[in-house]
Structures are given as C-alpha cells and as structure tokens.
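Worked Example 4.2. Read the sequence first, then its structure tokens.
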Amino acid sequence: MDSLLELFCHVDDFCKAFLPHWNKQLLSARRPRGRRPSLCMSEIMTILIHFHQSNYRNFKAFYLEHVMTHLRNEFPGLVSYNRFVELIPSVIVPLTHYLRHACLGTCTGITFIDSTTLAVCKNPRIHCHKTFAGLARRGKTSTGWFYGFI
C-alpha cells in the first residue's frame, strides 16, 4: 500500500498545483449541477493510474474485485462502478496533463514508433482507389504486400 500512498500524494500535489491554473483557463465559471462527487479528482486519477499498474485487464473487474473490497479503507468515499465510470470524463484533462508532464521524461532524441501497417484497400483495387491518392503507397511486410500507410 505504500506505493499507492506515494502515488496518491504525487497525484494530489499535482492537482493542487494544476487545478487553479486550469480553472482560470475555463471559459465560464458556471456552478456545477447536481451534488458534489464524494471522490476528489486526485482519488479518481489515482484509481485509474493504479488500474494500469495492476495485472487486471478489465477495469470493471478491477474496480469491483480489487478497489471495492481491498481499497475501501484507503478511499472512504467510494462510489458504485457505474457512478465511477460517469466521473472518469471529468478527470481526462488533468490526467492527460499529469501523464504528459509528470510521468514522461525529457526527450533524449531516441523515439520508438509503432510500425503497424494500415491497409487502405485490397491489392486488386489499387488502381481504382482515389481517396488516399498521393498519401497511400505500396509496401511489403513479412506477411506480404499491401497498399496503405506505413
């Protein structure tokens, strides 16, 4: 649990610094409708990051089996799974900013790129295909020839 506590402290410190700047940039300061969520933004972000650090592949199973049973003391204001899923969009901007600036290091000049091909059409239709003319081209991979983006 120490790693979860460290993660929460790091995320909470980030939220305390980020939220005032973000609120200044919002177009209007409308009063939020409905009641205030029982989980704060840093708690929601911590649960989402902790899911990606866990061995679970399914978020629903992670939340119901792990968070609701084992982490209830750490997060006293836990909400149902459906309500938590409704709260996720409210933390997308801060979470993206946190992952971008707090978790990624500086660029060293070495970049890894996924080289998966994206086929546009089947090979017999290459001459008729006009949608990506000039952008798509023929290529060859270990599985064969294709027409699309490399």
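Now turn to a second chain, presented in exactly the same format:
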Amino acid sequence: MTTSSKNLGDLFDSFEHEAFRLETLDDYSKSGSVDAYQAFLAGESQPDDYNTDWVEELRSHTNTGKRVYRVHVLSRPLTDYLRFELGWGYRKNMTGGEEFFILDVTGKNNPLENVPDFWFFDSASVAVMNYDGNGKYLGSEVLPAERAAEFTQYRDTALAHAEPFTDWWAEHGV
C-alpha cells in the first residue's frame, strides 16, 4: 500500500534534479537480469546489449543535467551477486552517467544498520524498496513527504562514509 498517489515510476518520470539510491543487500539476484546473472556465473562475457534500456533511461536524465547516483553498503568478501552487480552492472551503468559509491563496512560498524533500501528524489520524495529474504523485489512504498528529512540524513550519512566506486573497485574489484 502506498501513502501517496505517486508510485516509483512516477517519481522517476518527474524528478527535476537528482535521484539517489541506497542499496543494502548482498543479493538482488531474483529481482531482474536473472539470465545475465546466470551467464556471469557460467563465466560468459558480458553481452554488448546488457542493461541497454536502463542505460538509455539514465542518459535521458543525465544528458539534461540531472544527477542519478547511489551508495551500496557492503562488506568483503563479495558475494557472487555483488561481483556481478559491480562488475557488470555498475561499470555498464556508468556509461549512462550514473555515479556509484561504496560504503565498505568490512570490519567496521555499519552507520546505516537497519536502514531499508530506497530511492530518494529531489530531497523530497522517498520510495522504500521491499525485498524478500532471497533478493526478490516485492514492490515499493512511497512515503509521506514528512519523512524526507529522515532520508536526507540517511543519504548524507551514506555519502559521508562512502568512497567513489572507481577508487574502491581499483583496490578491491575482481
């Protein structure tokens, strides 16, 4: 049940300045790109057309000056899914202008413990992403505007503790 007349798609279609994503799970393998994930596990090369629709969506925003960026909270060693997501997904999505940051909590306290995955648009609209225990996307819930300050704090905390993906990947990538 949503608490707004807008849904996640509406928020993506109407944001004006920025779309921020916080990812907290080690496995989204049941949420999309299942065939690509299986190809990755089988040692196949990344197809040229992998994630083309999302990259085009990204470009439609970033080419007009909008920012799309995310922080993934993770720890090492990486799961197979994270090796796939970071190696295939993030690196491909960067070609569409999306920015990535890693908050590596290996051996550290997680400053965002128990914070859900979410998209945050223009520091005003929040859609919390819901997943089952196996990484399957169950839908999103758009929260009331009054919750924006809480999610601004989560975003700012994530960014304060994260490092650019390219720097992190150069040190820890596979």
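Notes for the reader: The chain has a mean pLDDT of 94. The two ends are 40 Å apart (CA to CA).
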